[in-house]
Protein backbone atom coordinates (compact mmCIF):
# COMPACT_ATOMS: atom_id res chain seq x y z
CA UNK A 1 0.00 0.00 0.00
CA UNK A 2 1.30 3.46 -0.91
CA UNK A 3 1.31 6.08 1.85
CA UNK A 4 3.46 8.78 0.22
CA UNK A 5 3.43 10.10 -3.34
CA UNK A 6 6.40 12.32 -4.20
CA UNK A 7 6.57 14.51 -7.29
CA UNK A 8 10.04 15.55 -8.39
CA UNK A 9 10.87 18.95 -9.80
CA UNK A 10 12.49 22.29 -9.10
CA UNK A 11 10.82 25.16 -7.23
CA UNK A 12 10.36 28.61 -8.72
CA UNK A 13 8.53 30.16 -11.65
CA UNK A 14 11.48 29.78 -14.01
CA UNK A 15 11.22 25.97 -13.70
CA UNK A 16 7.47 25.66 -13.32
CA UNK A 17 6.68 24.23 -16.76
CA UNK A 18 9.98 22.58 -17.61
CA UNK A 19 10.39 18.94 -18.60
CA UNK A 20 12.25 18.22 -15.35
CA UNK A 21 9.11 19.26 -13.46
CA UNK A 22 6.94 16.51 -14.93
CA UNK A 23 6.62 15.00 -11.43
CA UNK A 24 5.42 18.29 -9.93
CA UNK A 25 3.00 18.83 -12.83
CA UNK A 26 1.54 15.34 -12.50
CA UNK A 27 1.13 15.68 -8.73
CA UNK A 28 -0.58 19.07 -9.10
CA UNK A 29 -3.02 17.50 -11.57
CA UNK A 30 -3.64 14.47 -9.35
CA UNK A 31 -4.15 16.53 -6.19
CA UNK A 32 -6.56 18.87 -7.97
CA UNK A 33 -8.66 15.85 -8.97
CA UNK A 34 -8.95 14.84 -5.28
CA UNK A 35 -9.91 18.33 -4.11
CA UNK A 36 -6.80 18.66 -1.94
CA UNK A 37 -4.57 21.72 -1.62
CA UNK A 38 -0.89 22.35 -1.00
CA UNK A 39 0.61 23.81 2.18
CA UNK A 40 4.26 24.78 2.59
CA UNK A 41 5.79 22.78 5.45
CA UNK A 42 9.21 24.02 6.60
CA UNK A 43 9.79 20.86 8.64
CA UNK A 44 10.02 18.85 5.41
CA UNK A 45 11.24 21.67 3.13
CA UNK A 46 8.32 20.83 0.87
CA UNK A 47 4.80 21.54 -0.19
CA UNK A 48 2.62 18.85 1.37
CA UNK A 49 -1.01 17.80 1.13
CA UNK A 50 -3.13 14.98 2.44
CA UNK A 51 -5.96 13.49 0.46
CA UNK A 52 -7.85 10.25 0.07
CA UNK A 53 -7.26 7.94 -2.87
CA UNK A 54 -9.05 4.59 -3.05
CA UNK A 55 -10.34 5.25 0.49
CA UNK A 56 -6.77 5.50 1.79
CA UNK A 57 -5.15 8.57 3.32
CA UNK A 58 -2.16 9.55 1.18
CA UNK A 59 0.51 12.17 1.80
CA UNK A 60 1.57 14.19 -1.26
CA UNK A 61 5.01 15.82 -1.25
CA UNK A 62 6.76 18.27 -3.59
CA UNK A 63 10.29 18.96 -2.28
CA UNK A 64 11.40 22.61 -2.32
CA UNK A 65 15.06 21.59 -2.06
CA UNK A 66 15.65 21.54 -5.82
CA UNK A 67 15.86 18.31 -7.77
CA UNK A 68 19.37 17.26 -6.81
CA UNK A 69 18.55 17.42 -3.09
CA UNK A 70 15.07 15.87 -3.17
CA UNK A 71 16.19 13.13 -0.80
CA UNK A 72 16.57 15.61 2.07
CA UNK A 73 12.87 16.39 1.99
CA UNK A 74 11.73 12.83 1.29
CA UNK A 75 13.97 11.45 4.03
CA UNK A 76 12.54 13.85 6.62
CA UNK A 77 8.94 12.98 5.71
CA UNK A 78 9.63 9.24 5.69
CA UNK A 79 11.26 9.32 9.12
CA UNK A 80 8.55 11.55 10.62
CA UNK A 81 5.64 9.44 9.32
CA UNK A 82 7.50 6.10 9.69
CA UNK A 83 6.94 5.20 6.04
CA UNK A 84 8.81 2.28 4.49
CA UNK A 85 10.46 2.61 1.06
CA UNK A 86 7.97 0.17 -0.52
CA UNK A 87 5.14 2.50 0.60
CA UNK A 88 6.47 5.35 -1.56
CA UNK A 89 5.61 6.27 -5.15
CA UNK A 90 8.01 8.76 -6.77
CA UNK A 91 6.75 10.48 -9.93
CA UNK A 92 9.54 11.78 -12.16
CA UNK A 93 10.58 12.72 -15.68
CA UNK A 94 12.16 9.97 -17.78
CA UNK A 95 14.59 10.74 -20.62
CA UNK A 96 14.53 7.15 -21.87
CA UNK A 97 10.84 7.30 -22.85
CA UNK A 98 9.26 9.33 -25.62
CA UNK A 99 6.90 12.12 -24.62
CA UNK A 100 3.51 10.57 -23.88
CA UNK A 101 4.86 7.28 -22.53
CA UNK A 102 4.35 6.50 -18.85
CA UNK A 103 5.51 3.38 -17.02
CA UNK A 104 5.53 2.02 -13.49
CA UNK A 105 8.38 0.12 -11.88
CA UNK A 106 9.74 -0.85 -8.49
CA UNK A 107 13.34 -0.44 -7.47
CA UNK A 108 16.31 -0.20 -9.76
CA UNK A 109 19.10 2.31 -10.06
CA UNK A 110 18.89 6.04 -10.60
CA UNK A 111 19.88 5.89 -14.31
CA UNK A 112 21.65 9.24 -13.96
CA UNK A 113 18.59 11.01 -12.51
CA UNK A 114 19.96 13.15 -9.70
CA UNK A 115 16.65 13.42 -7.86
CA UNK A 116 16.39 9.64 -7.67
CA UNK A 117 20.07 9.36 -6.75
CA UNK A 118 19.54 11.65 -3.75
CA UNK A 119 16.38 9.87 -2.62
CA UNK A 120 18.16 6.50 -2.77
CA UNK A 121 21.05 7.96 -0.75
CA UNK A 122 18.77 9.43 1.94
CA UNK A 123 16.55 6.36 2.23
CA UNK A 124 19.42 3.90 2.06
CA UNK A 125 17.19 1.93 -0.29
CA UNK A 126 15.99 1.89 -3.88
CA UNK A 127 12.98 -0.28 -3.00
CA UNK A 128 10.34 2.34 -3.84
CA UNK A 129 7.93 2.59 -6.76
CA UNK A 130 8.47 5.00 -9.63
CA UNK A 131 5.97 6.43 -12.06
CA UNK A 132 8.19 7.43 -14.98
CA UNK A 133 6.83 10.12 -17.28
CA UNK A 134 8.48 10.24 -20.69
CA UNK A 135 9.99 13.54 -21.77
CA UNK A 136 12.12 12.23 -24.65
CA UNK A 137 15.79 12.92 -25.28
CA UNK A 138 17.43 16.01 -26.71
CA UNK A 139 18.67 15.98 -30.29
CA UNK A 140 22.19 14.66 -30.84
CA UNK A 141 24.80 17.12 -29.66
CA UNK A 142 22.43 19.01 -27.35
CA UNK A 143 23.11 19.32 -23.63
CA UNK A 144 20.81 17.15 -21.49
CA UNK A 145 20.68 19.70 -18.64
CA UNK A 146 19.53 22.44 -21.02
CA UNK A 147 16.89 20.11 -22.45
CA UNK A 148 15.36 19.02 -19.13
CA UNK A 149 15.37 22.60 -17.81
CA UNK A 150 13.48 23.91 -20.84
CA UNK A 151 9.77 23.84 -21.56
CA UNK A 152 8.36 21.14 -23.83
CA UNK A 153 7.62 22.17 -27.40
CA UNK A 154 4.04 23.27 -28.05
CA UNK A 155 3.31 19.97 -29.83
CA UNK A 156 4.58 17.99 -26.81
CA UNK A 157 2.14 19.45 -24.25
CA UNK A 158 -0.88 17.43 -25.42
CA UNK A 159 1.24 14.25 -25.30
CA UNK A 160 2.41 15.06 -21.78
CA UNK A 161 -1.17 15.74 -20.68
CA UNK A 162 -2.27 12.47 -22.32
CA UNK A 163 0.35 10.60 -20.28
CA UNK A 164 -1.09 12.14 -17.09
CA UNK A 165 -4.60 11.13 -18.15
CA UNK A 166 -3.37 7.61 -18.90
CA UNK A 167 -1.72 7.17 -15.49
CA UNK A 168 -4.27 8.84 -13.20
CA UNK A 169 -6.93 6.09 -13.33
CA UNK A 170 -4.36 3.57 -12.05
CA UNK A 171 -3.23 5.58 -9.04
CA UNK A 172 -6.06 4.11 -6.95
CA UNK A 173 -4.88 0.58 -7.76
CA UNK A 174 -1.30 1.51 -6.97
CA UNK A 175 -2.24 3.13 -3.64
CA UNK A 176 -4.42 0.20 -2.58
CA UNK A 177 -1.64 -2.30 -3.31
CA UNK A 178 -2.88 -3.78 -6.60
CA UNK A 179 0.36 -2.69 -8.19
CA UNK A 180 0.85 -5.71 -10.45
CA UNK A 181 -2.45 -5.00 -12.21
CA UNK A 182 -1.52 -1.34 -12.66
CA UNK A 183 1.90 -2.32 -14.03
CA UNK A 184 0.29 -4.73 -16.49
CA UNK A 185 -1.91 -1.95 -17.85
CA UNK A 186 0.62 0.89 -17.84
CA UNK A 187 3.61 -1.06 -19.08
CA UNK A 188 2.00 -2.63 -22.16
UniProtKB/TrEMBL annotation:
<keyword id="KW-0963">Cytoplasm</keyword>
<comment type="function">
    <text>Catalyzes the release of premature peptidyl moieties from peptidyl-tRNA molecules trapped in stalled 50S ribosomal subunits, and thus maintains levels of free tRNAs and 50S ribosomes.</text>
</comment>
<keyword id="KW-0694">RNA-binding</keyword>
<keyword id="KW-0378">Hydrolase</keyword>
<dbReference type="GO" id="GO:0000049">
    <property type="term" value="F:tRNA binding"/>
</dbReference>
<comment type="similarity">
    <text>Belongs to the PTH family.</text>
</comment>
<feature type="binding site">
    <location>
        <position position="15"/>
    </location>
    <ligand>
        <name>tRNA</name>
    </ligand>
</feature>
<comment type="subunit">
    <text>Monomer.</text>
</comment>
<feature type="binding site">
    <location>
        <position position="114"/>
    </location>
    <ligand>
        <name>tRNA</name>
    </ligand>
</feature>
<comment type="function">
    <text>Hydrolyzes ribosome-free peptidyl-tRNAs (with 1 or more amino acids incorporated), which drop off the ribosome during protein synthesis, or as a result of ribosome stalling.</text>
</comment>
<dbReference type="GO" id="GO:0072344">
    <property type="term" value="P:rescue of stalled ribosome"/>
</dbReference>
<protein>
    <recommendedName>
        <fullName>Peptidyl-tRNA hydrolase</fullName>
        <ecNumber>3.1.1.29</ecNumber>
    </recommendedName>
</protein>
<feature type="site" description="Discriminates between blocked and unblocked aminoacyl-tRNA">
    <location>
        <position position="10"/>
    </location>
</feature>
<feature type="site" description="Stabilizes the basic form of H active site to accept a proton">
    <location>
        <position position="93"/>
    </location>
</feature>
<dbReference type="GO" id="GO:0006515">
    <property type="term" value="P:protein quality control for misfolded or incompletely synthesized proteins"/>
</dbReference>
<feature type="active site" description="Proton acceptor">
    <location>
        <position position="20"/>
    </location>
</feature>
<dbReference type="GO" id="GO:0005737">
    <property type="term" value="C:cytoplasm"/>
</dbReference>
<dbReference type="InterPro" id="IPR001328">
    <property type="entry name" value="Pept_tRNA_hydro"/>
</dbReference>
<dbReference type="Pfam" id="PF01195">
    <property type="entry name" value="Pept_tRNA_hydro"/>
</dbReference>
<feature type="binding site">
    <location>
        <position position="66"/>
    </location>
    <ligand>
        <name>tRNA</name>
    </ligand>
</feature>
<dbReference type="InterPro" id="IPR036416">
    <property type="entry name" value="Pept_tRNA_hydro_sf"/>
</dbReference>
<keyword id="KW-0820">tRNA-binding</keyword>
<dbReference type="GO" id="GO:0004045">
    <property type="term" value="F:peptidyl-tRNA hydrolase activity"/>
</dbReference>
<feature type="binding site">
    <location>
        <position position="68"/>
    </location>
    <ligand>
        <name>tRNA</name>
    </ligand>
</feature>
<dbReference type="InterPro" id="IPR018171">
    <property type="entry name" value="Pept_tRNA_hydro_CS"/>
</dbReference>
